[in-house]
């Protein structure tokens, strides 16, 4: 419903999904209001009434994107060991950024080059939140003994975020899903590096 009680003439979720794809394909700056209203099949006044200005629309689109396309993050964080967390996170991301029928790459990377401070801040905050949650999970891994006691949980989480940012960029360049999955598997070597004096090797499987 509109603030005045009139029914909306469009389906908000469908319109927002169209906005997600438009920002995803073009980035924040290049996605103009003309492109957005055409993709969303609504007038500019209707867009403003339902979602606010472009920055507010982008925030709503990013929230929608996270809810629909980043479920692999939650799934990964529930895995029983740190290595399985990393594996599920990296492989889930590699698949997400190369899903047939969707734009290649990741909305949060495609749109991050922008002069709009609020949009950039939201993108950075999303990455910070995921990095913090990964670091917390790796700290738990250290406490539970499936990571060595001298491991740096923050650095490990930062490594994961840096890898997935790279995956998104390479996917946009046309890298295949198989190639990204191979890189994900290769990166897991840091969880099973041979070291007879470290608990890192205990209970770990090797590719």
Layout of strands and helices, then pairs:
Elements: H1 12-30, H2 33-40, H3 44-51, H4 54-69, H5 71-77, H6 82-96, H7 107-110, H8 117-144, H9 153-172, H10 177-187
Helix pairs in contact: 1-2, 1-4, 4-8, 5-6, 6-9, 6-10, 8-9
Describe this structure in words.
- The structure is a single chain.
- It is built from ten helices and no strands.
- Helix 6 (82-96) packs antiparallel against helix 10.
- The chain is elongated.
- It has two domains: 12-66, Homeodomain-like (Arc Repressor Mutant, subunit A), CATH 1.10.10.60; 70-191, Tetracycline Repressor, domain 2.
- The N and C termini lie far apart (54 Å).
- The chain is 66% helix and 0% strand.
- The chain has 207 residues and is mainly α.
Question: Nutshell version of this structure?
Answer:
By secondary structure, this protein is mainly α.
DSSP helix count? 10
**Oligomer kind:** single chain
Q: Could you name the ranges where pLDDT drops below 50 across 5 or more consecutive residues?
A: 1-7, 193-207
Which architecture of the largest domain would the CATH scheme give at its second level?
A: Orthogonal Bundle
Structural class: mainly alpha
Counting structural domains, the number is 2
Q: What do we call the CATH homologous superfamily of the largest domain? A: Tetracycline Repressor, domain 2
In percent, how much strand structure appears in the residues?
under 5%
Q: Name the CATH class of the largest domain.
A: Mainly Alpha
Strand-and-helix sequence, N→C?
Answer: HHHHHHHHHH
Using only CA atoms, what is the Rg? 20 Å
How confident overall, as mean pLDDT?
85
Dominant shape: elongated
End-to-end C-alpha gap:
54 Å
- Give the biggest beta sheet: none
Share of helical residues: 55-70%
